Amino acid sequence: MKTLLYSIHHQVRKALLAMAIALPMVSCHTVWDDDDDCPVETEYRVKFVHDYNMLFTDAFATQVRSITLYAFDEDGKLVLQQSEQGETLSRDDYTMKLDLAPGNYRLVAWAGLAEGNAYTVPVLTENISDKEDLTCRINRYPTTLHDEPIDSVGYLHPLWHGIVETQTLTRAATETQVITLPLMKNTSTIRVILQQLAQGQLDASQFDFTITDENGMMTHENRLVEGDGVLTYMPYHQAQGSTVVEGEASEEQLNVVVAELSVGRLMADGDTRLTISNRQTGETILSIPLIDYLELCRTVANYDMPLQEYLDREDTYTMTFFLDSNQSWLNTQVIINDWIVRFNDITPEL
């Protein structure tokens, strides 16, 4: 009798052990009535894309070398902050892993911060900092220009911003959820060329080039913060030179001065002004509303897009102005990005 009971007990133990081993191998959907009870972890990854440019192609892998991602929950609290930089971003298949639980999140990215010290972003604390605490401010340095105090800005390394307003991370077995986060470039390069039509060499040290704007601080949504003050962007490169244009009958020498400036995000309704003045006397050679002139270029080039989209997509503008023998501006035409803008019946604002 004892032998029989032992045999039955032994067989039951073997059967229970076999069932215990087999259970984890069965699909969650066949075992659990509620998917939330299913012990399956979905991997979440972010794919960054920068195709908001005039080429309409993704330039993330070729241009971006550092990126910081912030995730905020439905209450606006920071729950995740992580960064990456270097050659790994240049891979076409690069994605950033998100260690987050399923839920609804707002994702914000600033790219390019690690390339220098041109910007200040506050230090945030997870589960304490709010999305409104995330700002990006252009660093400026007090100085004087023609005996007037200014907040000057030199070279700005490229900066990008991206946001996904609401992203739902779901739980799904055996799959990876990829979230696309589009980036937009905030910085632009303005290349200004002064060309003298008369004979004589131009001296670059005789000219001051400035661009003034109130665009020095951005919110997490990439909106400008009012009241941050007027910035005066100064050239990070300024030089003089000449070139010979070969013609059929004669050769003509062109004397030029070139200045390159980098600026923060240009806004369609911004009061952005480009000014060129004589460094010794302070006399103004030209002072123009920059946005109005860039809009003229958009119109002449027949770009079928709103002005703000054009300003956000284009990141390089080359503007050529012509001087007479007295170094006065000949305001009959200007060349912008190889497009000739002639002021026939239009009197350009000075």
From TrEMBL:
Which Pfam family is one of those matched by this entry? Mfa2
Gene Ontology annotations for the cellular component aspect, listed alphabetically: cell outer membrane
Membrane-crossing ranges are: none
User: Which keywords annotate this record?
Assistant: Cell outer membrane, Lipoprotein, Membrane, Palmitate, Signal
- Please name the InterPro entries in this protein's record: FimB/Mfa2/Mfa3 (IPR014941)
As for subcellular location, the record says: Cell outer membrane
What family does the database annotate? Belongs to the bacteroidetes fimbrillin superfamily. FimB/Mfa2 family.
Record protein name field: FimB/Mfa2 family fimbrial subunit
> What organism does this protein naturally occur in?
Phocaeicola salanitronis (strain DSM 18170 / JCM 13657 / CCUG 60908 / BL78)
